[in-house]
Amino acid sequence: MAENFDLIVIGSGPGGYVCAIRAAQLGMKVACVEKRATLGGTCLNIGCIPSKALLQSSEVFHQAAHGLKDHGIAVGEVSFDLARMQARKGEVVGANTKGIEFLFKKNKITWIKGAASFTGPNAIEVAGTAYTAKSIVIATGSESVPLKGVEVDETRIVTSTGALELDKVPGRLVVIGGGVIGLELGSVWARLGAQVTVVEFLDRITPGLDGEISKAFQQSLTKQGFKFKLGHKVTGAKTSKTGVTLTIEPAKGGAAETLEADIVLLAIGRRAYTEGLNLAAAGVAADARGLVLTDGHYATNVPGIYAIGDVIAGPMLAHKAEEEGVALAELLAGQAGHVNYDAIPGVVYTWPEVANVGKTEEELKAAGVEYKVGKFPFMANGRARAMGEMEGFAKILADKTTDRLLGAHIIGPDAGTLIAELVTAIEFGASAEDVARICHAHPTLSEVVKEAALAADGRALHI
Ligand code: FAD
Ligand code: NAI
Is CB count within 10 Å lower at the N or C end of the chain? Predict the structure, then answer.
C-alpha cells in the first residue's frame, strides 16, 4: 500500500520547504519531494544565494580596487582569484542547503528524493513508488523564459544558472533583458572587468519599478560602465568558438545591426515550471502561460491540491513564496493564514541598491489616485557622507487626503535594509506623518526615510 501523509509538498524551494516546516510545526505528518540533489530550490542553489555571494565578492573587490583611496587607504595592486570566489560561493550555497536538510530532520519531515508526478487527485509517484496524502502542495517554481533564435547552451549563451558558473571574466558580456537578473549578474561581471551591454526590448530598464527610480538606476549603471541598447530586440544569435554574434533590431522596426559578445546572458523573465508533473492526471488547471490557477486560499480547481510560489500568479520572489507557504500551512491547520500582497518588498542587490514596496507613481496615476510625493537625497545625510556613499534618494508616496502611505521607493546605499521600515509602516496602515514622527538614530542612513516622510508634508529639516 502507498505510504500516506497528511501533506506532501512537491518542491523544496522557499515556498515548499517553509510550507513543510510550518505544517510540521502544526502537527502534520509531512513529506517534501525534491528532484534536485540538494534542498532549497532555485533560490538557494542557483538563485538568490549564489548571486548574492558573487555580488558580495565582486563588491569587496571593487571597493578594494577603487574605493579605498578616498578614505586615505593605500594598498598595493588589488587582484582577484575567480576560482576561489566561485568556491566560496559554493561553500555558502552548501551551508544553506545543508541547513534546510537539518531543519527537515529537526521537524521530522520526510525528504522523498526524485521527481514527483501525479497519478490521481491525491496520489503521486516518485521513482516508481506511490504516495498518497490528504493535501498536496505544488511548489515547483519557475524556469527562465527561452527566446527564439537564441539557443541556450549554458556555455556561450547562458541563463542565470550559467552566468553564476563562469570560470573566466568575459571581455564582452551582452545581457538580453534589462531586468533584475540581467542587472544584478551584469554588475557582478562588470565589477570584475567585463564590458556589459544590455539589450532591452522596452524604452526603459526594470519596467516594474517606479519610473523616476528606473531612470536614476540606469544613470548610475551607465556611470559604472554599462551600455544600454533600449527599444531593441534580438533576432538571432550565431555561436562560434570565440564568441557570439547577435543580430539586433529596433523594437519598432528599422535597420538591423550586429553585436559581438564573448558571453550572452539571456534574462527576459521566468515562467512557471510544471514539466513532468502530469497535472492532467489530477485534472489541475493552469493558464496559457503555465501558471497554476488558484483561489485566494491557494486552492486549485481540484479539492486537496494547492499551489504556492513562482508556479502561481504574483511576483516571483523568495519571500513571497515563503509567506504563501506559511499562510497555506496555517489554513490547512484551520487557522487564518493570509498574505498582504500590498506589502511585499522588492530589492535589486546592485550598488546602489534599489528597493520598493507598494505602488509606483505610474500605478497611482493609472488608478486615478491623488497622491503627494516626499523625496530626500542621500547627499544630504550625514552618515551617507561619512561613508562616501551619497548616490540616490528615498521617495515616499502618500494619499493626498488621508496621508496614508501607498508606496515607497529607495535607490541608494543599503536600500534593501532601509525599505523594511516602510514595509512595516504600510503593513500597519501608517501615514507619512507617522513615519516622520518616529525617532530615527543619528547618524544613520534611516534618517533619509524619516526626511522623505517629512518632505511629503513639505517640511524636511535638512534640505
Ligand atoms: P523554487 O525555488 O524554484 O523551487 C522549486 C523546486 O521544485 C526546485 O528545487 C525544483 O527542483 C523542484 N521541482 C520542480 N518540479 C519537481 C517535481 N516534479 N518533483 C520534485 N521536485 C520538483 N528572489 C528573491 O526574493 N530575492 C533574490 O535575491 C532573488 N534572486 C534570484 C536570483 C536568480 C539568479 C534567480 C533565478 C532567482 C532569484 N530570485 C530571487 C527568485 C527566487 O529564486 C524565486 O522566487 C524562488 O526560488 C521561488 O520559490 P519556489 O519555492 O516557488 O520555487
Ligand atoms: P524581469 O522580468 O525582471 O526582466 C526581464 C526584462 O527583459 C524586462 O525588462 C523585459 O522588458 C525584458 N524583455 C522581455 N523580452 C525581451 C526580449 N525579447 N528582448 C529584450 N528584452 C526583453 O526578468 P529576469 O531579470 O529574467 O528575472 C526573473 C525574475 O526573477 C524576476 O522577475 C524576479 O522576480 C526574480 N529575481 C529576483 C531578484 C531579486 O529579488 N533581487 C534577483 C533575480 C531574479
Answer: N
ipTM: 0.99
Taking CA atoms only, the protein residue closest to ligand 1 atom 15 is 140
pLDDT tens profile 210-223: 999 999 999 999 99
Atom of ligand 2 nearest to the CA of 315: 34
Pocket test for ligand 2, best of 268, 410, 423 (most atoms within 8 A of CB): 268
The answer to whether 308 and 296 are in contact (CB under 8 A) is no
Is 19 a pocket residue for ligand 1 (Cβ < 6 Å)?
no
Our measurement of the distance from residue 390's CA atom to the centroid of its chain's CA atoms, rounded to an integer in Å, reads 25
CATH superfamily for domain 157-268: FAD/NAD(P)-binding domain (3.50.50.60)
Q: What's 343-455's CATH class?
A: alpha beta
Which DSSP category does 386 fall into?
H
Which CATH number is 3-144+271-339's, of 3.60.21.10, 3.40.50.720, 3.50.50.60, 3.40.50.300? 3.50.50.60
Q: Is the pLDDT of residue 1 over 90?
A: no
Query: What is the spatial distance between Cα 248 and Cα 228, in angstroms, rounded to a whole number?
Result: 13
133: nearest Cα among 26, 33, 5: 5
